[in-house]
Hints:
Layout: E1 2-7, H1 15-26, E2 29-35, H2 44-51, E3 56-61, E4 71-76, E5 80-88, E6 91-98, E7 103-111, H3 116-133, E8 136-142, E9 152-153, H4 159-171, E10 174-176, E11 179-180, E12 186-188, E13 191-193, E14 196-201, H5 202-207, E15 213-214, H6 218-222, H7 237-271, H8 276-290
Parallel strand pairs: 1-2, 7-8, 11-15
Antiparallel strand pairs: 2-4, 3-4, 5-6, 6-7, 8-14, 9-13, 10-14, 12-13
Helix pairs in contact: 1-2, 3-4, 7-8
Amino acid sequence: xxxxxxxxxxxxxxxxxxxxxxxxxxxxxxxxxxxxxxxxxxxxxxxxxxxxxxxxxxxxxxxxxxxxxxxxxxxxxxxxxxxxxxxxxxxxxxxxxxxxxxxxxxxxxxxxxxxxxxxxxxxxxxxxxxxxxxxxxxxxxxxxxxxxxxxxxxxxxxxxxxxxxxxxxxxxxxxxxxxxxxxxxxxxxxxxxxxxxxxxxxxxxxxxxxxxxxxxxxxxxxxxxxxxxxxxxxxxxxxxxxxxxxxxxxxxxxxxxxxxxxxxxxxxxxxxxxxxxxxxxxxxxxxxxxx
Length: 291
C-alpha cells in the first residue's frame, strides 16, 4: 500500500490536477493526503480527475481563508476500509483497516501551524483523539518544526519547539519513519529543513519493514509533461502518436538526466555547502526543467 503526501500550496484547477493523477497512477497510490489546498468548498467535481478510478472514499477540511489551510484525504476503498472519519481545522484522522491483511489502524494527515502555541494545541487535540481511538497509527504531514538541529540549515531553530515535538512523539510511542534519498524536505535559497515526515507506531514497521518516506523532486510535482489532443485531430491519431512518442521519449530522457544532476547536487548540499560552480549548475538545471 503506497501513500502520497503533498503540501500542494493551492490546488488550482488544471495543471496540478493532472500532476496528481500522474503521480497516483505512476506510483500506484492507495492513500493520498494533501495540505494547504486553499479550497473553500468541496472539490468533489475534481476528485475523479485526480484519482482515476471510481472506487474511492474521501475526507476534506475546507480552508478558513483563501491564503492558507485546507486538507484533503482520498484513498482506495478496495484497499483501505474506513469506519470513522475525524476532522480538525488542521488535521484528518481516518480509522479503518487495510483489507488484504485485516490490519486495523488509523491514518492521519497533519498540517501544523507555524507558531509554537498553535502546534501545542494541535498536539493536545491529536493525543486525546489517538489515545481514545486506540488503533495503530500512521501520521503523514507537514509538522512545520524540526526534530533535531541537524535537520535544519540556515534558519533560526527553536529548542523549545523541538522539545515539544519530541516529547509529543514519545508520549504516543511513535517512530520517525526514515526519509529516503534526501535529507531535507523544504528549501529556500540557502536555507533548508526537514518539515515533512511520517510517524508511526512500531507495529507498522513490523508489518511493513520496508516502510520509508520519499521526497519527490520539485519538477516531478510541477513540470510533468502533459499531452492533450483535441478530438478534431483524431484523423491524425497514428502519425501523431508516433511523433509524440519520439518527441516525449527524448524529453523524458533529458528530464531524467536533469533530475539526476539536481538530485546529486541536492544530496551533496545536505553534506556540505555547494561551491559557486556547483550552485550555478544546480540553478541552470532547475531553470532548464522549467523552460
